[in-house]
Amino acid sequence: MRWRLSAHSSGAERNAVAGPRRRCALGLPLALLVRVGPARAGAQQYEPLADAVRNALAAQIADSRPPVRSFNSTEERLAFVDWLEEMSKRLARRQPEDRSRHEFLRTLDYETARAGIDRQLVLGLVQVESNFRKYAISIAGARGYMQVMPFWTRLIGDGDARKLFDMRSNLRYGCVILRHYLDIERGDLYRALGRYNGSLGRPEYPNAVHAAWKERWSYPPRAKSTV
Q1: CB proximity list for 227: less than 8 A, separation 6 or greater
Q2: Could you tell me which of 134, 74, 68 has the C-alpha nearest to residue 100?
Q3: Could you tell me the sign of the dihedral formed by the alpha carbons of 49, 55, 56, 60, in that order?
Q4: Does pLDDT of 66 surpass 90?
Q5: CA distance 129 to 16
Q6: 186-204: burial string, b at 16+ Cβ within 10 Å, e else
Q7: Cα–Cα distance between 27 and 184 in angstroms, integer?
Q8: Does residue 4 sit within a domain?
Q9: Domain containing 209 — which CATH number?
Q10: Residue 6 belongs to some domain of the structure
């Protein structure tokens, strides 16, 4: 099975925690890391990058412009409001706090549009990767919502892997990396997802993301007005 997108598509646990304020080397409470447990994800594989590619990816990560959505029309703005309301309802059980949930969805919308990736696809990917757990860590060490491997922060970022637990940084890294893999695979989503998970050629992960995308997060856009 193959699915394609164009370039412009849309630790180990310790026996006990010595006090509630004890923190690990990552700067996060050990109790929190123990609670979230390992994520389902695999891990992206390190591959040497040509200087031009590395510099281009680094520039995308370093872009400090605020994630503010702009709209070309009232219709486009209303369509976004509809989407935000519907996605917020679907995500409420996993992220019960309204403000953080809306911030997550707004940032995801911005970063997916910036990377040219379908936002519903990325919601499916986040579900499979971390089940929307901000501090999830996989057995391989991938971190955060989109389960980004720390080597990426050294390769195209500032080397601070703690930023992968920051919501916006994690979504940006994840979307930039997925776009990179889509470009390598010339829009072949099946193979790009395999690369993202470190399981290229195996169907389980691409099929799981595809199922979550289509069964849980599928969303028809607002019908255009004919008036």
Answers
A1: none
A2: 134
A3: positive
A4: no
A5: 27
A6: eebbbbbbbbbbbbbeeee
A7: 35
A8: no
A9: 1.10.530
A10: no
Residue 189 lies in a domain: yes
Q: Residue 40: is its pLDDT beyond 70?
A: no
The closest of 112, 124, 113 to 218, measured between CA atoms, is 124
Q: What is the domain extent for residue 52?
A: 40-215
Q: What CA–CA distance (Å, rounded) separates 176 from 171? A: 8
| pLDDT tens per residue, range 170-217 | 999 999 999 999 999 999 999 999 999 999 999 999 999 999 999 999
Rounded to whole angstroms, how far apart are CA atoms 211 and 150? Answer: 27
Confidence of residue 41 (pLDDT cuts 50, 70, 90): low
Output Rg (C-alpha) for the chain, integer angstroms.
18
Number of domains into which the chain is organized:
1
Residue 167 has pLDDT above 60, yes or no: yes
pLDDT in tens, 89-98: 999 999 999 9
Round to whole Å and give the CA distance between 184 and 171: 20
CB 181 within 8 A of CB 53: no
Mean pLDDT of 148-153: 96
- 147-168: average pLDDT: 96
Cα separation, 133 vs 156, whole angstroms:
24
Look-up of token digits 């890294």: 173
The torsion region of residue 201 among left (phi > 0), alpha (psi -120 to 50) and beta comes to: left
- Could you tell me if residue 102 is inside a domain? yes
